[in-house]
Write a structure and sequence with these properties.
single chain
Amino acid sequence: MDSDAVLTVVVLMLMGAGLISGRLSPASGVMGATAGLFLVGVIDADAAFRGFGNPAPITIGALYVVAGAVSKTNALQPLVVKMLDQGSRGRMGLIRLLTPASAASAFLANTPIVAMLVPTVRGWAERYGIAASKYLIPLSYATILGGVITAIGTSTNLVLGGLLQAAGQDELKMFELARFGLPLAGAGLVLIVIAAPLVLPERRDKQPVGEERSYLVSMYVVAQGPFDGQSVETAGLRHLQGVFLVEAERQGAVIAPVAPTFVLRGGDRLTFAGRVDLVLDLQAMSGLASAEDPHLEAVDSQDHTFFEAVVGVASPLSGRTLAEAGFRGRYQAAVVGIHRSGAPVEAKFGQVRLRVGDTLLVLAADGFDSRWSNHSDFLLVSRLGGSPPRATRRTPVALLAVAGLVVLPAVGLLGVLEAALIAAGTVIVGGVLTPREARESVDLSVLITIGAAFGLGAALQEVGLAQDLANHIITGLDFFGNAGVVAGIMVVTMLLTELITNVAAVALVFPVALETAAQLGLDSRILALGIAVAASASFLTPIGYQTNTMVYGPGRYRFTDYLRLGVPMSLLTLVILTTLVTVSA
């Protein structure tokens, strides 16, 4: 390899290490790598930043606006609530949930769909006394499957369309991906319905005493308050409904378990475990004060409510403590509980460095969800409790915009970009979203990632790495014929999408796929369609795809829970894509 190729490999390895470790967000990692390759002279400015002039980022931004309108009008939730409230549980409940979710994600970004439906599913599960953990990973996977059916289903598909146009090929047609995506979606949904009830854990918010609970909350005994000098039994802290006294700490000494006769003293730190919706009872007790009182000063409204907020990949909270992030000043809210990897965090919150996927129990004034639900700080913000959402009077306008977005490109009247811009304009002019709300519904970090990713693919082509990688894949798998080579490319794409991002994965593999197709005499467009579907097939980890991260905390999952259903889903994807691409190419 020459010096440019070596520099490219080094930069890509540094980017991968930063993304895998979580030290870099996708936007900063991909943009940093592209800018680095430009600064060292591997690629020129045109190659580095041509993605920002490509239709893909603009189209995706417009689609975010449309999805924001659908979310605001609650157009989807009432349908799902009605279907779920038929009383069906188990596999029939999965069918009733996954069918509309998967269908909707073929035409809307799956991230807002999951954000809309997670609180709905959790509320339904609580009403019927079943575990939401049996439904939330399937919900994420179903929206991923729906997204591979159309050209607008995911940002990955739109990036592929932009790459094809940059390579001199035709624009991606609305249902062109369906030749691979539809069989995969159908088979994948069948597998989920059959396997999910068997392999996914049952984790409930409400657990018997002594078992895992949703959150730990620390309180201080108020000096000279009503509990100072009282025993635990007398103070009424022994048999709290849904809340369990785990331990007491006095002058650095920890007492656990806490006996009913233990006499409380002012300044004792008491740690409780319990359901999130019952923590408010502790906050209301005059004899107790929250150990997070400095944070609670931010909540100056009497009309405060509990919310759950999931830390996102691009969040400024990731890797920082609450104090370092200035949580109180930025969000005007208080964190009273942290949930991580299926268990509550047992530490003083001020000392905890937050991670991607952490679920924060937030006490804030009413409206916290509407202010922050469209920001990259949180992947998901959901209000605890409340009645199921209802569709608003602006719902028909939002649905009309979606219909135009789908029909106009499908019948050939407009391209996807033009239809997306018209749909976005419709929801703004129609009063569904204000201009400010439209701006806030667009995730700029995603657009930056997409625009910068084009430069990475250009670098692989210009320094000859795409050809070298294609040669290695063909040489190593030629014994298995074209099917072996296709399978190898699909495996590489699926691994990259778990380790870095789906957008970066398709941008990096695309030039390799073109070189491979040219050397084997395959249809390069068919192979490109296959890698787009493979790049969206993120089923193995909670961090490989945003929707997986969004359900991580609310489902009380652990990292390995994704493998239980994700491994068979990934194998199914590999078999179907390899077979269909090989036959078609």
